[in-house]
Each structure stands twice: as structure tokens, then as C-alpha cells.
Design brief:
Strands 1-2-3-4-5-6-8-7 form an 8-stranded mixed beta sheet, sandwiched between helices. The relative contact order is 0.19. The chain is α+β, with helices and mostly antiparallel strands. The protein has 7 helices and 8 strands, in the order αββαααβββαβαββα.
Length: 218
């Protein structure tokens, strides 16, 4: 469970981090470039107003917020409503998805991609509500998102991801998706109000092509 983390030597204030992210994530794409994604048990779609209560409930958890770079804690209904509003405006990332169950539409968490300073790379992020951990949902959602990136964005050659060094579950998700460890660094944590140690991972297109059935990583 992680999103947009900073490499070592790039530490900035939390406010500067938020502002610079918003400035570089202007909505240049329509949602048609972020199609609804289906997997065996999940539907990944745009967040909407009906998700606000469930979003606020699941995100208001220190075990989640301290593993996600820009999630405040406590997390209120107003925070959830603002998140949905900003996703519609394209202020958070190129593609932000609500992770929902295919059988009943239940909201489980969020994932998404956003650009990096490298035009050939994007960054993936995700979080899942604690009641839904250890069920394989995060890996399933990440597989669907990665497949979408490499199949619909011909210019993208690599996908970056970062997680806290203490987040064993998130590291395992990245390993099951074929990401390779690149190094360590620091990330700003809004919930903690400080920088935290993180690990940086990368998945390239060639590796994805060799593993895209995901069968070798189950």
C-alpha cells in the first residue's frame, strides 16, 4: 500500500511536495484513456460520490494512512469528498481507480498511475482497506493496472513503485508483479508529518512481456 514516494536526496517539505505534485498533474487526458478494468474478482473504475462513506471509513485507519504518502490522519468524510472531487478534475493523477468487488460493488480501496519526470515512465500506487487485506485483492488490482499501462501507453517503458521499508505486504505485492528492487530513499508522510524510509522498485516492459500471463507469479 503506497503511492508517490521520493528518492533519497529529493526530500522536500510536505507542503512543497503536495503543491509540486498538483502542478505537474494537470488533467491532460480524459477518462477515456483510463478505461474500466475487469479482473476475476474486481472492477476498477473511477471513484464517485457513492464511495465517499466507505472511503472515509476505510481510510480513517492509521495502519493505512502511515503507509500512504499523501493520506491525512484522521481521515474525514470531507477528506473523502474532496478526494473524489479532485480525481474528477484530474488533480491527483492521470488515472485514479476505485477498487471494487465484481460481485457486489463493494468499495475496497484505490489504485492509480501518475506521470514522473521521465516521459518514458509512470508511477503506480495503491492502498486497500484493512478488512480486505490478505485476500490477494491488491495484487489482482495491480496486475490489471499494469496490464492497462503497457497495453495502452506505447511510450511507457517502465513503471516505478515505492513502499515503506516496514511494509512487508506491499513489497510482496510488487515482487509478485515482477518489480525489481532499485534502491532506498526517503518519502514524505502526511499522516506522520515527517519523512520515512522507503524502497524503490521498477518494472520494465520487457519483463512484463515475459510475465504478462502472471502465471509464474501466482
Amino acid at each position: 500500500m503506497q503511492v508517490e514516494l521520493l528518492r533519497e536526496g529529493q526530500s522536500r517539505s510536505l507542503r512543497e511536495d503536495q503543491l509540486s505534485s498538483q502542478e505537474r498533474l494537470r488533467p491532460e487526458r480524459s477518462r477515456t484513456d483510463c478505461p474500466v478494468l475487469l479482473s476475476e474478482r474486481l472492477v476498477l473504475r473511477a471513484p464517485h460520490e457513492e464511495d465517499i462513506d466507505a472511503l472515509a471509513h476505510l481510510a480513517n485507519n492509521a495502519n493505512v494512512a502511515t503507509m500512504v504518502s499523501r493520506m491525512p490522519h484522521p481521515y474525514t468524510v470531507n477528506d473523502a469528498a474532496d478526494f473524489v472531487r479532485r480525481t474528477k478534475l484530474g488533480e491527483i493523477g492521470k488515472c485514479v481507480y476505485a477498487i471494487t468487488k465484481a460481485d457486489n460493488g463493494a468499495f475496497l480501496g484505490c489504485c492509480g498511475i501518475e506521470p514522473t519526470a521521465d516521459p518514458l515512465a509512470v508511477e503506480i500506487g495503491y492502498w486497500l482497506g484493512e478488512p480486505h487485506w490478505n485476500s490477494g485483492y491488491t495484487t489482482e488490482a495491480a496486475h490489471a493496472l499494469i496490464d492497462m499501462v503497457f497495453r495502452t501507453r506505447d511510450q511507457v517503458e517502465t513503471i516505478d513503485a515505492r513502499c515503506r521499508v516496514t511494509n512487508v505486504a506491499s513489497r510482496r505485492v510488487l515482487q509478485k508483479c515482477g518489480f525489481q528492487f532499485q534502491g532506498t530513499g526517503l518519502a514524505a508522510s502526511l499522516a506522520l508529518g515527517s519523512n520515512v524510509s522507503v524502497e524503490w522498485f521498477r518494472l520494465d516492459r520487457k519483463t512484463w512481456m515475459s510475465l504478462r500471463s502472471w502465471g509464474a507469479l501466482k
